[in-house]
Each structure stands twice: as C-alpha cells, then as structure tokens.
Amino acid sequence: MLTVQQKNIAEKIENNANRRLWRDWKWQLKHSIQDIQTFERLTGIQFTEMERLEIQETLARFPLSITPYYLSLIETGDYKNDPIFKQSFPSVNELTIQKCETADPLHEDHDSPAPGITHRYPDRVLFHISNVCSMYCRHCTRKRKVGDKDFIPDRETLMQGVEYIRNTPQIRDVLLSGGDPLMLSDDYLEWILKEISCIAHVEVIRIGSRMPVVLPYRITDKLVEMLKKYHPVWLNTHFNHPRELTDSSREALKKLADAGIPLGNQSVLLRDVNDCPRIMRSLVHKLVANRVRPYYLYQCDLSEGLSHFRTPVGKGVEILESLIGHTSGFSVPTYVIDAPGGGGKIPIMPNYLISWSANKVVLRNYEGVISVYHEPEAYPATYCDRQCDGCHLQLKLDDAIETQAIGIEQLLADWDEVSSLIPADNARLERREEEE
Ligand SMILES: *Cc1c(COP(=O)(O)O)cnc(C)c1O
C-alpha cells in the first residue's frame, strides 16, 4: 500500500505511475530529486526567492539527491523541523566552515595503501567501492567524495584494492563502503564479493549501506539470494530517527534478517534531528524489534560544513545515561568519537567507576545507587611470557594468531619490554637525543 503522499508524488512524477513502479528501485533512482524546482513541485513547499538563492549556492558545492520514497516521508506541514527534510535538503549553514573543520578530518586518504582502501586497524579494512548514493545525507562525513567525483570505480581499479587485501594476510574483515555499495548492480557487487570471499584469510565481509532507510526497494529477493551465497556477510545501516522505520523499510530489514545477515545500525548524533533521549530510546527499540542491533552512535565529525549538526559531547553522554540500565543491553549502541587525524573510533561512556582502593572498587549504577565490589583476596599476577605450551590455561588454540601487542595492550603485556608510549614529536626526548 502506498501512502496518500506517495500516491501523490508518484502521480506528479509520472502520470498513472502505479505501486509496482514506485517499488522499482531503478525507477526511484531515475526520478531522484536533484533540483529545487522539482522538490517544490513534488512537495508543494514554496521557498522565497532569497531562500532559493541560498539553497542554490549550497547546491553548487554539495549536490542534492533525494529518492521519491525518502521525500515522501517529509511532513510538509512542518518541514522546517522535519528530521527527514533536515537530513536530505541543503541548508545555507553548510557553507559555514569552522576553522577546526576539514574535508577529510579522519585522514582516510592518508591511510590509503591502495585505491579505495583505508587500512587503519590491524585486522580490517574499509573498501570504498562506490562514490554514489541514492540520497546525499547533508551530514555526510565524506562530502568531499560525492558530487564532482560521482562514479563507480571500474574493475581494474577495484582489483588493486582486492590485490592489497589478498597480499595482506592480517586482514580478516573487509568492510564494503562508499558511497553506497548497493548502488552497484547485483552482478557487479557479486563479482566483488566473489573476488574477496575466495581470499583464504578473509573471514567476514561487511556492507555499509543506507538503502534500507532511503531506498528500501533496493533490498530485493534477488539481491538477498545473491548476498547469502557469500556468508558470513554482515550489514550495517544508518537509521537516525524513529520516523524512518516505515512498512517499506521493515520489509527490507526482514528480507535481510531472514537471509541470515546480521544487521547493525550506525546512527549519527545530529542537532535538531535526534539529540533527545526519548527520540533515541524510541529509535533503538524500533531497531531491535526489527532485528537490528544498535551498533554505534557517532559524534558528528569535523567535516566541512557540519557545524550546525554538531552537539556537545555531553549530549551523547546524557543519551547513553538514559539508555544504559534503563533498557535491554543489546539496545544500547557504543557512543564513539572518530578521532580527528585518523586515530579511529574512541568509545565514550558515562563514568560508573567512582573510586578504587587496593582491594575494593566503588561503582554506581544507572539509578545512582553506589555499591562496593570486593576484589579477590589473593590474585597473584601470573607472569605471561606468551609461551602458551607451558601454560595451565587451556588456550591451546591451533589458530591462535600471534601478533605484536599494540598501544596500551603493550604496556600491560609482560612479554613486551615497552614501558611508555611517547608521541613521535616529543620535544623533551628530542633534546635527549641531541645530547647523546
Ligand atoms: C569504522 C571503521 C572500521 C570498522 O571499525 P569497527 O569498530 O570494527 O566497526 C574499519 N576501518 C575504518 C577506517 C573505519 O573508519
């Protein structure tokens, strides 16, 4: 069933456009709204001359694209406060660029050993296989990539990324991202999945796609039949507001979950969209009811033109405070800040550890109740030399992976001599070296 608004929009796009056409993802893509006039005609919203000029200026920098489906979710009566409108329609605020904001705040292009690959963590990579999306999120962290370089890489370019993965045995998890990987045709996507899944050391493939939210008709029976041939395939999507969970998106999620694809959700904390504990609680409940595990809640990145979307970090902590303990553990996402400069995701939590002594830990719970936990009377620190053969613990995993300790792990390991981690440009140590 189409809603009244959907019928209305469908009819304006094409005379006698029926339900079947509306649910055809290629028809939706072909009729994506990319200019102000079409937006006005289909929604009945009228901008002033001044507003049009401002929007036009923003469009020249960051392109507009909204699927008719996502457009149909806008409540036109109060569009200025509408979370769908805010996420999809350009604002003049995008032209305000603060000093701390850059085109590539996460330095994804620096950590790129092959075209499309960002290799940041030891055992997994991000593989950008498309620069296109069906809807351009106004809060996109990769705004630098969309629009002027609007394309899907050819097989030759993608093969360079695949070769990098093949030649790097530490990689056990490949995250297909973009752009939206589901903008690729089923055949092209299958070719990539086939190439990656036949690499012996790749254990999991993940897809990051906003299609279940902005174009749920892309999740066809044919697509899921294809995806499930390459299990384990995981999929993370991007719902930000409970209003985005519609009958159509529920159906898409059901198809994916029924195909055995574990589903996760990555939200971005956005000012005037979802920066509210009640909205977030409603969102996570709707997600788990549809078999989607809230995975991350992101602090909005320092990408150019996003300052109007950013909230203080305290807002995120407040939201987590209202979730942890109050609702099912699996409904609570991990709140993260993706470190500017490329340090990766850093989890942020309210403080639950209030104090500590030699044998006691003082904690508080979500209600404010303060408790003491007694630590074991005697717990001799066992010296670990990493010679597992002589250890009494039965961790004799044949496939235990031997890697070097990294970062804080290094400070805690007995078998590693390192006793401090020092920034590369530490002036005090540079002076020491000069003296020597
Ligand atoms: C987010 C991200 C990943 C995946 O991180 P997980 O915490 O495993 O979900 C991998 N590479 C890059 C560059 C990322 O930004």
TrEMBL record:
Catalytic activity: L-lysine = (3S)-3,6-diaminohexanoate
Enzyme class, broadest EC rank: isomerase
One GO MF term attached to the UniProt entry: metal ion binding
Gene3D superfamilies named among the record's database cross-references: 6.10.140.1170, 6.20.120.40, Aldolase class I
Modified residues (N6-(pyridoxal phosphate)lysine): 345
UniProt EC number: 5.4.3.2
Residue stretches making up the Radical SAM core domain: 119-331
Pfam family, one: LAM_C
Residues reported in the UniProt entry to bind [4Fe-4S] cluster: 133, 137, 140
Requisite cofactors: [4Fe-4S] cluster; pyridoxal 5'-phosphate
Keywords noted in UniProt: 4Fe-4S, Iron, Iron-sulfur, Isomerase, Metal-binding, Pyridoxal phosphate, S-adenosyl-L-methionine
Lineage: superkingdom: Bacteria
NCBIfam families xrefs: KamA family radical SAM protein (TIGR00238), lys_2_3_AblA (TIGR03820)
Membership in a protein family: Belongs to the radical SAM superfamily. KamA family.
Protein name: L-lysine 2,3-aminomutase
Taxonomic source organism: Marispirochaeta aestuarii
Taxon lineage: Bacteria, Pseudomonadati, Spirochaetota, Spirochaetia, Spirochaetales
